Amino acid sequence: MTANAQHCSPPAAPSVSVAPPATVKAPEVSSFKLLATLALAGAAAGLLVVAVYRATLPTIEKYAAVKEESAVREVLKSAARWDTLYLQKGALTKTPDAHDDRKSLPRAYLGFDASGRELGAAITAQEPGFQEEVLLMIGFEPATGTLIGFKVVDEKETPGLGDKIERDTSFSGQFAGRLTPLHGVKARAGDDPHQVQTITGATISSRAVIRIINHAVERWQPLLVAYEKGGIR
Amino acid sequence: MSTTVAPPSVTPAYEPGTTSPPAFIPGAPPPATLWADTWRGIAAENPVLVQMLGMCPTMAVTNVLANGIAMGLATTFVLVGSGLFVSLFRKYIAHEVRITSYILIIATFVTLADLLLAATFPEISKALGPFIPLIVANCLLLGRAEAFAAKVGPVRAVADGMGMGLGFTLSLSAMSAIRELLGRGSLLGFDIMGPRWEPWVFMVLPPGGFFTLGLLLITVGWFEQRRRRARAAVAA
């Protein structure tokens, strides 16, 4: 990068009145001064970023919480209230020890209707789809493994094809009442409660949803059953 | 750094000043009015359609109009902010570490833009995903810092950043409007084409991006050629 770089000026700019001198030499600068300049600039930039990070963090976390809450509300249908359970030391508990950060613990939501009857549990699960990780919120009844429904929280599947797992209600609508483990079929799903029909043109994404649900229920069902046996606290 | 070299524009974008600048700065842009500094980025040296800079976000995020506008405005924010600071500190930044310093300034503004977007429009922030942090690597930013902001006063630098940013936003908006309208039948999420419209899914996929950019470049080139011919005819 020297003085002859053209930049944005048209080369044929007609009447620029200055002619460049033959050589342009920047004065020597000591390494210490260079280091000091960069260190100072880095410190100032860091300070600014930290300030804005701290200022925006509450809003960003609030949005995430609102989003999670609406997803729980959606998959647990008519839940009047729910308990948040934390997975700690291989068991679920409503009151985790303080030495773990609550936010970093895996969570399950146990929903109840207005009369206090248990409706089911909602859990999140994330696994690779066709392009990237697909994040689902899954609602199911722990005792039987019957699905209530699921909601796609985050996906980056192919627009117009794979993203039908999020948009196509005839796909997502068929999960309610089905029993895990599920398996996908291409033809119309029959009376078998384990069958769901995959989306034409989005077989891999549909199978990913089915796989994520199966794995998640497999992992969480025993935990939730064990928690309920211990009495709903 | 050949990426910063703009192709020669047909019309001289500058009104060459009547007085020579007080001190010669290597490669400094000739004096021009603030309006000319701003307008240059929008039209004669449009970042996407003329300079062909920042092609990565141009392809990646223009599948729906809201994303295109958001990406353009975020880039404008970074262009104006980094232009201002590069210009303010231009006399203190040693020649040897200038690129490092520019990148530091740009990266700071990109991080701010990322956080502010996440706090104000979480949905758009989610949709743009990694492409906001990647503004750092957009050669438009470093190009304007090195070619313009580092060699002029802060007011001109801000005008240039504004113009380049708006030019970028306009091109991205044009691309994403075409792609969303044909690929989803909607604009900004509102259904425009009606229920009988079968979306051209490929328009929102990567090939649609190349296709749309090609068509836009052809259109711009055609108008440019027509204008040149008309001017030649007048001169003759």
Give structural notes:
The complex is a heterodimer of chains A (233) and B (236). Chain A is of the alpha+beta class and 233 residues long. In chain A, a hairpin with a 2-residue loop joins β1 (81-88) and β2. In chain A, the strands form 2 sheets. A 6-stranded antiparallel sheet of chain A has the order 2-1-3-4-5-6, sandwiched between helices. Chain A has a two-stranded parallel ribbon with strand order 7-8. Chain A is built from 4 helices and 8 strands. Chain A has helices spanning 31-75, 164-167, 169-172, 203-229; strands at residues 81-88, 91-93, 107-112, 118-128, 133-141, 146-154, 183-185, 195-197. Chain B is mostly helical. Chain B has helices at residues 34-42, 55-60, 65-88, 98-120, 122-128, 139-147, 154-184, 206-235, and strands spanning 186-187, 190-191. A two-stranded antiparallel ribbon of chain B has the order 1-2. In chain B, a hairpin with a 2-residue loop joins β1 and β2. Mean pLDDT of chain B is 85; it is low at 8-15 and 18-22. At the A-B interface, α1 of A face α4 of B.
Q: Main sheet of chain B?
A: 2 strands, antiparallel
* Oligomer category: heterodimer
What is the number of E strands of chain B?
2
Kindly state the mean pLDDT of chain A as a whole number?
A: 80
Number of strands of chain A: 8
Q: Into which percent range does the helicity of residues of chain B fall? A: 55-70%
Spatial order of the strands forming the largest sheet of chain A: 2-1-3-4-5-6
N→C terminal distance of chain A: 70 Å
Mean pLDDT of chain B: 85
Shape of chain A: extended
Q: Radius of gyration of chain B from the CA trace?
A: 19 Å
| Helical fraction of chain A | 25-40%
User: Uncertain runs of chain A with pLDDT below 50, 5 residues or more?
Assistant: 1-16
Distinct helical segment count of chain A:
4
- Identify low-pLDDT runs of chain B: 8-15, 18-22
